[in-house]
Amino acid sequence: MGETMNTGVDPELLEDEPVAALLDDGEAAADDEEVTGPKSEWFVVHSYSGMENKVKKNLEHRAESMNMTDRILQIVVPTETEIEIKEGIRREVERRVFPGYILIEMIMDEDSWYVVRNTPGVTSFVGMGNKPSPLSEAEVNQIMSRIESDEPRVKVSFDVGERVRIIEGPFAEFTGVVDTLEAEKGKARVMVSFFNRETPVEVDFLQLERDT
């Protein structure tokens, strides 16, 4: 009776504020480690091309019906808006960035793997052998910045070195060879013969057609 438990810590040290603070921080860190659970990662699954949106709906339905929405978090079919120029007409179309592939943010474990892998339309996870490989943070950021961009991409229908005809502008009816392409700006530099000299001319894709 009257004995005190030996904690291995000098009671006088506990009165020292810095030491007490260190002990408190250590306890807080331990609490944080206990609270922190498994992190979600992005994985890629393969499906039949043209069925990506249907498979996405199947995955969402399966995750909900099997109470897996806490582990299967996001399902994305990467698409982007593309400006297509055909026969002098510009139109915007939505196209799949990776035909036949779907991105899934999920906490990977045996149960979540089983639900995704056995969803109708999913043929496999992308990875080495039978082990799914998560995307790196850099890969995820690159894909997301591409599909979330407000600027549509221009579909280039010409190749460097191809012979083209200018159909509009001050150099209309001139023919030349594509020297460089700037898809982001929707422009091309064409080398045309002007006063018997090869002259570079910058024109919009809309002002060009293949010289047949």
The CATH H-level superfamily of the largest domain is: NusG, N-terminal domain
Low-pLDDT regions:
1-23, 26-30
User: What would the CATH topology of the largest domain be?
Assistant: Alpha-Beta Plaits
Approximate helicity band: 25-40%
CATH class of the largest domain: Alpha Beta
Alpha-beta classification? alpha+beta
Question: What does the model show?
Answer:
The chain is an alpha+beta fold. It has 2 domains: 41-154, NusG, N-terminal domain (Alpha-Beta Plaits); 163-210, Roll (SH3 type barrels). It has 5 helices and 14 strands. It has helices spanning 11-14, 17-35, 52-65, 110-117, 137-147, and strands at residues 41-47, 72-76, 79-86, 89-96, 101-106, 122-125, 127-128, 131-132, 153-154, 163-166, 175-182, 187-194, 197-204, 208-210. A 5-stranded antiparallel β-sheet has the order 13-12-11-10-14, with no helix packed on it. A 4-stranded antiparallel β-sheet has the order 2-5-1-6, covered by helices on one side. Strands 4-3-9 form a 3-stranded mixed β-sheet, with no helix packed on it. The protein is elongated and about 75 Å long. The relative contact order is 0.13. Mean pLDDT is 81; it is low at 1-23 and 26-30.
